[in-house]
Amino acid sequence: MPNWKPTVIAIAGASASGKTLFAKTIYRELIDELGEEGIVIINEDAYYRDQSHLALAERENTNYDHPNAFEHELLSQHITALCNNEAVEVPQYCYKTHTRTDETTAISPKRIILVEGILLLNNPDLRDRFDIKIYMDTPLDICLLRRISRDVNERGRSVDSVTKQYLSTVRPMFYQFVEPSKQWADLVITRGGKNRIALDVVKANIHQILQKHLKE
Ligand SMILES: Nc1ncnc2c1ncn2[C@@H]1O[C@H](COP(=O)(O)OP(=O)(O)O)[C@@H](O)[C@H]1O
Ligand SMILES: O=c1ccn([C@@H]2O[C@H](COP(=O)(O)O)[C@@H](O)[C@H]2O)c(=O)[nH]1
């Protein structure tokens, strides 16, 4: 049993606000120092509910921006298990088929666990699992422009389908669930995933935590 407990850092905010970029930049800049055993990213999207029992046309109508679309109980169980030094099997999700694949990703406990996703701070049980809560406060028009380009290039979508989904669910759910969850954040980050000062503040915090592990 290690003498440290993982530190769990949540990175929340609107779709395409820069959560993934922020998490991946921290990971890339720390991985040489911490090693594979030191840091990992978990994506909330991996915990979208399995929809393999539904026809593709039905899956296309799911509201993916409502909390019920996620199996948050499983994400919460997995974080608890990692904090108890147990390995977990994280589901894999496919945005093109809108369901889980048959594969899972094995994750062992790490000193630093970065969790990123739109609705992490909305759920009180999940909130209790996070040591540091971050909210990416990127203007929604910038998020929309980035989402169109990303979804068309990487998630097999058309501009028309992104537009319809944005107006019917993404935007209303943002105002109902995502933006109000900002109140729970310890750090609110403006200007997205490339905000160098914000990246350095979070990295400095991680270094402080690692120093404590060395002393324990
Ligand atoms: N500051 C930025 N400048 C330019 N492009 C960015 C910036 N932040 C994010 N992007 C791009 O916008 C898209 C969405 O960013 P991403 O980090 O995936 O957002 P999220 O994880 O919040 O959905 C990606 O294609 C990413 O490369
Ligand atoms: O099958 C799906 C699952 C999710 N989405 C959209 O993804 C975003 C959340 O992911 P980000 O990486 O934070 O953008 C969410 O807004 C869903 O609308 C989807 O379109 N299809």
From TrEMBL:
<comment type="pathway">
    <text>Pyrimidine metabolism; UMP biosynthesis via salvage pathway; UMP from uridine: step 1/1.</text>
</comment>
<dbReference type="InterPro" id="IPR006083">
    <property type="entry name" value="PRK/URK"/>
</dbReference>
<dbReference type="GO" id="GO:0005524">
    <property type="term" value="F:ATP binding"/>
</dbReference>
<keyword id="KW-0418">Kinase</keyword>
<keyword id="KW-0963">Cytoplasm</keyword>
<keyword id="KW-0808">Transferase</keyword>
<dbReference type="GO" id="GO:0005737">
    <property type="term" value="C:cytoplasm"/>
</dbReference>
<dbReference type="InterPro" id="IPR027417">
    <property type="entry name" value="P-loop_NTPase"/>
</dbReference>
<comment type="similarity">
    <text>Belongs to the uridine kinase family.</text>
</comment>
<keyword id="KW-0547">Nucleotide-binding</keyword>
<dbReference type="GO" id="GO:0044206">
    <property type="term" value="P:UMP salvage"/>
</dbReference>
<dbReference type="GO" id="GO:0044211">
    <property type="term" value="P:CTP salvage"/>
</dbReference>
<comment type="pathway">
    <text>Pyrimidine metabolism; CTP biosynthesis via salvage pathway; CTP from cytidine: step 1/3.</text>
</comment>
<dbReference type="Pfam" id="PF00485">
    <property type="entry name" value="PRK"/>
</dbReference>
<dbReference type="InterPro" id="IPR026008">
    <property type="entry name" value="Uridine_kinase"/>
</dbReference>
<feature type="domain" description="Phosphoribulokinase/uridine kinase">
    <location>
        <begin position="8"/>
        <end position="197"/>
    </location>
</feature>
<dbReference type="InterPro" id="IPR000764">
    <property type="entry name" value="Uridine_kinase-like"/>
</dbReference>
<keyword id="KW-0067">ATP-binding</keyword>
<dbReference type="GO" id="GO:0004849">
    <property type="term" value="F:uridine kinase activity"/>
</dbReference>
<dbReference type="GO" id="GO:0043771">
    <property type="term" value="F:cytidine kinase activity"/>
</dbReference>
<protein>
    <recommendedName>
        <fullName>Uridine kinase</fullName>
        <ecNumber>2.7.1.48</ecNumber>
    </recommendedName>
</protein>
<feature type="binding site">
    <location>
        <begin position="13"/>
        <end position="20"/>
    </location>
    <ligand>
        <name>ATP</name>
    </ligand>
</feature>
